[in-house]
Please model this.
Amino acid sequence: MKVAVIGGGIAGLAAAWELQERAEVTIFEPGRLGGKILTTDFCGHRVDEGPDAFITRTPEAVELCAELGLTGELVAPAAGRTLLWSGGRLRPLPEGLVLGVPRAMGPLLRSRLLSPLGLVRAGLDLVLPSSPSAGDVAVAELVGRRFGDQVTRRLVEPLVGGIHAARVDDLSAAATVPQLLAAANGTRSLLLGLRRQQAGAETGPAFLAPRGGVGRVVDRLVERLVGAGTWVRAQRAVRARILADGRVDVDGDGPFGGVVLATGATETSRILGDQAPIDLRDLESTSVVVVTLAFSGRDLPSPEGANGILVPPGEGKLMTACSFGSNKWPQWSGPGVTVLRVSAGRHGDDRAPGLGDADLVARLVDEVNDALGTHAGPVAMRVSRWPGSFPLYRVGHLERVERVQGDLARRAPNVVLAGASYGGAGIPACIASGRRAARSLSAAP
Model:
């Protein structure tokens, strides 16, 4: 069977990897292979411009690395303590949080992140009656009804909202924090439910990355795919047309017996034109910017043992997070140099994407100095813009995706979707989405 994979991000590459032994695969990608995964040179070292690690709680990325012979290159972050910018100062996040939700009250009490009233309200989770959700709800509603507003805004918002570049009022619990939803629905207390969930969890690093940057996964994957005979077509403005027999024409090439659309929802809608499912238009996205900065270590020493800073939107800062790259990944810099990655941009806040590079860097450097109590100027900088790169999972997202997939399945059962717009954010989720889409094509009659 001839299969077209449209989109060369990690989801599309994973789909091609899954298909390579049982199909003739062509990848259509007008730009660079790898999508949001990009590792480039910065001050003489390989530094990630996009994601700098993958979570190990789900196994797909670790398993793919094993298949590619990269297991021996995987390392965990060298620093594990996260700081929170709260009330104009840095405080360590309490231990034992699950996506910002506490599994014990002691660390929360000692953190001084909540007021006395906020602590009392959080403790009510242990005595309030069960409040299961009949369906999907916003993350803010799920957490707020158990722990109150302060846990939601001061802990969950910077963690979950930071991961998805959005406010927790806008985020679907089912799509972004399914483990919290399951714990809340399965027991009377969310805190106790999370404690039971974690009781049997395996210990080990929560995050891993190849020593040479996450781009090593893409490099090895492309090398192996091309070596196995996968075609890569660098065509721009790809269009796909579903034919009467269910096969698909891609820019006059084909027809293909199967197509994996591993592109964002907006691009997928454009590719399919008037054949695109209507619900695709309801799948939104957010733009973010990542600024990489190098400082003299004398001028700006990063806090010992800290991997970064999370900034709740209530603080009014442009910065949403700051990662201490030199602490997390010592291979990112040489002696006497501090490398930071500063993120900005969230849904509903377009200040960062709207600023020019010079103004953006100046604003973020000021905020970093304010947080750390320093007066340093960077010796090198890099601005990485990621327009429309973060899908927004609103309440009901999974149901909307199901309708999109159902519409396609009725008209073109051999056209399937993959990628962050549909199957979850993060590298493991995208890999799983691509491989799942490929398997569904392989199983088609």
The two ends are 11 Å apart (CA to CA). The longest helix spans residues 427-443. The mean pLDDT is 93.
